[in-house]
Design brief:
212 residues, mainly alpha, Ferritin
Length: 212
């Protein structure tokens, strides 16, 4: 086809411009595809729901023991456990996992319910037993968090669970130190002895417990 009255160089320029518009249009259509986000597996959902209740177990137990023995240590750490629950809850909301927090002392998970009942019974006997209960909870928490960290490929979960582990290590040091100050001792029930001793020999850690 001839383009009468147009300079040949202008014709080349015009055709080049049309081709550029075509390429840009194709490129724009590719860019509207949604950005991929991390997926959460059924195992991850179950891990989040379980750890939410395990952190709740810690909070509820410390609330009971703090009121029983009027020890600020339990009530202070209880507040930290609430922040742990909040951190896990944020992930549950982020990934659209339905959950409901039951009243204090109540749990969906039957194993956690049985453990809670056992712990408050043990901790009600005396202050030394109460501190052993605190150490036991943190001992268990560190191990359970590690198990889930190893099993998940979700970086959000890893980041939050590692932060919660950091808090649990601090709590473990606190309970064991208080127990030893009154002449008691604690033997790890879930951690291996080397990991346990390394935790006690380390100093208090600064933990970021708020997920991005």
């Amino acid at each position: 086809m001839k383009l009468y009255g147009l300079h040949p160089k202008f014709v080349i320029f015009l055709l080049g411009g049309l081709w550029s518009i075509f390429l840009i249009s194709c490129s724009d259509s590719d860019e509207i595809a949604p950005i991929a986000t991390q997926q959460i597996s059924q195992a991850d959902k179950e891990a989040l729901l379980f750890m939410f209740e395990e952190e709740k177990l810690a909070r509820d137990t410390y609330l009971f023991l703090g009121e029983k023995w009027a020890l600020n240590q339990f009530l202070t750490i209880k507040n930290s456990e609430q922040s742990h629950m909040d951190a896990v809850a944020n992930l549950l909301v982020k990934y659209g996992v339905d959950y409901t927090a039951l009243p204090v002392g109540d749990f969906y998970n039957s194993d956690l319910q049985s453990l809670y009942n056992e712990l408050i019974s043990d901790g009600a006997s005396d202050v030394s037993a109460a501190l052993i209960v605190g150490a036991t909870i943190e001992d268990l928490d560190i191990v359970d968090l590690q198990d889930h960290i190893v099993q998940t490929g979700n970086s959000d979960i890893v980041s939050v669970f590692e932060s919660l582990q950091c808090g649990s290590r601090n709590h473990l040091r606190s309970f064991v130190s208080s127990l030893e100050n009154i002449g008691g001792t604690y033997s790890p029930q879930y951690l291996d002895i080397t990991t346990y001793e390394n935790i006690l020999e380390s100093t208090h850690e600064k933990c970021n417990q708020q997920p991005n």
